[in-house]
Amino acid sequence: MKRFPLYARILLWFFLNLLVLAGAVVALLVFQFQAGPELFLGGRAGERLQAVAQIITDELNTQPSQDWNATLQRFGNAYRVRFMLYRNEGGQLAGETTTLPPPVAQRVFTPGGARREGRAPRDSAREPEANGPARPGGRPLQPREPPGEGLEFRGPPRGPRDTPRVRESFISRTADPRRYWIGLRMAVIERPPERPVPATLILVTDSLNAGGLLMDFTPFLWVGGSALLFSVLFWLPLVRSITRSLKQMNLATAQIAEGKFTVRVNEKRRDELGELGGAINRMASRLAGFVTGQKRFTGDIAHELCSPIARMQMAVGILEERADPKDKPYVEDLREEVEHISSLVNELLSFSKASLGATSLRLETVALRALAEKAAKREARHGEEVRVEMAEDLAAIADPELIVRALANLIRNAVRYAGNTGPITITARRLEGEVELIVADGGPGVPEAELPKLFDPFYRVDTSRARETGGVGLGLSIVKTCIESCHGSVTCRNRQPSGLEVVILLPA
Asked: Are strands 386-389 and 424-430 parallel, antiparallel or unpaired?
């Protein structure tokens, strides 16, 4: 399963929280304050729309009415939207012929206009305008628009100061199909005749972008990126401090699980992580005391057993000399049992010495080839082939007695389980800052699931613990204790097609 870092999880959760809060604010604006799409017409978006509408108005006011379609189409192609121009009193002046949706038509045409609520245009010659008396000949006087509807005009423009300005805008959204209809109140000079016409410029778009007029995403990207960068820089020290402490505790507990009880973590934090670090340190200290006491107790017991076992061996020797021939087999069995007990006690003493003597060691530079040859000569007493293949000048920082004891135990173990399958080789090479020492045999190897347990005290692959299948399961435990006392590490792996390799790493 792919690991997902804690700091990334915390930052992601923080940004999700921001999104939820932003959604809650939008919902409050919509439902509590009846906010609608008109929010997009404020600020710079509204200014952009008003500016474009004013440019279109100024250009239309310099052209005859028959050229307005081409002008609106040109602006629409430039912004990838559609522009249409309608009279406020009813009727379309220019642009693509389109039937306005009822909500849009209701906002485009003035309450007194021609298409109010779907009615046909009034005949202005027969029906006077509701807001004012009719002129002679049937033409109504200039309508008095309600506040917020249409524009006031004071005759044809006579100069730049009299150019009709865009005064008001609105936005409406339709669902099927989903479109946004943006209305911009303006005034155009219809030619011919030379007269101002209150009108509404309609912008139709399928998205809120509207060719960059309504929604300019560049500021949002800058603000969002800046907020993201600021949030990461603001939260990163806190998150890093948490993850750093957790990583340190994870490494410390892994070392404690391997039996390295001298490890300590930082407990100076004034929070729960500091309390957890203190608890880990106290646990390591207590475990170190328990394990050291257990090993000391084991060593003391083994030492105390040496004297009675020696006396038993002496007594068995005397008994063997004085026993009748018919009792010789029983005395021989007794002697073998006493020797087995003596071997077990000696193993316990070696294990205890290797464990308890680590604190008083004085490590030095040792020549590995000489130590390996010494161990091979000690253990290969019955003609077993043990090859030492390494450079003469290869050296490491270690205790020579512990290295010889570890190599002797490995050679003895290899002779016991793979002595008749080929030579036992001891090789070494220099790595970056370390020396790798390998003891390999050609035996049957060990099941993969059992490899991590080989260095546990009293563990044996063969659970019967018969005398014919090996010792008591302390040999590899002594190896591990000796190597770790020299600030090294030891692992094992199977060889292909068969055999076992024990890999020792020592400081170069």
From this structure: parallel
Residue 184 sits at φ, ψ, to 5 deg, of -125, 110
Spatial CB neighbours of 166, under 8 Å, sequence gap ≥ 6: 50, 53, 54, 57, 184, 185, 186
- pTM, to two decimals: 0.47
Could you read off the pLDDT tens digit of each residue along the chain, which spans 508 residues?
456 677 677 778 878 888 888 888 877 766 655 555 666 666 677 788 888 888 998 898 888 888 899 999 999 888 888 999 998 888 889 998 888 898 888 888 865 443 333 333 333 333 333 333 333 333 333 333 333 333 333 333 444 444 445 556 788 888 878 888 888 888 888 877 778 889 999 988 888 777 777 666 677 788 878 887 887 788 788 888 888 888 889 898 888 887 778 888 888 888 888 888 889 888 988 888 887 777 777 777 777 777 888 888 888 888 888 888 888 888 888 888 888 788 777 777 776 666 655 555 678 888 888 888 888 888 876 677 888 888 888 889 988 888 888 888 888 888 888 767 778 889 988 888 888 889 888 888 888 888 878 877 777 766 444 555 555 667 787 888 888 888 888 888 888 888 888 899 998 8
Are 71 and 61 spatial neighbours (Cβ–Cβ below 8 Å)? no
Contacts 24+ apart (CB under 8 A), 419-424: 419/384, 421/498, 421/499, 422/385, 423/385, 423/386, 423/387, 424/384, 424/385, 424/386, 424/387
3-state secondary structure of 80: coil
DSSP run (H or E) holding 197: strand 195-205
Place of tokens 């506040």: 147
Q: How crowded is the C-beta side of 113, counted as CA atoms within 13 Å? A: 26
- Which neighbouring-strand residues pair with 173? 180
Q: How many CB atoms lie within 10 A of CB 38?
A: 12
Position of tokens 């339709």? 174
Phi, psi (deg, nearest 5) at residue 453 = -100, -5
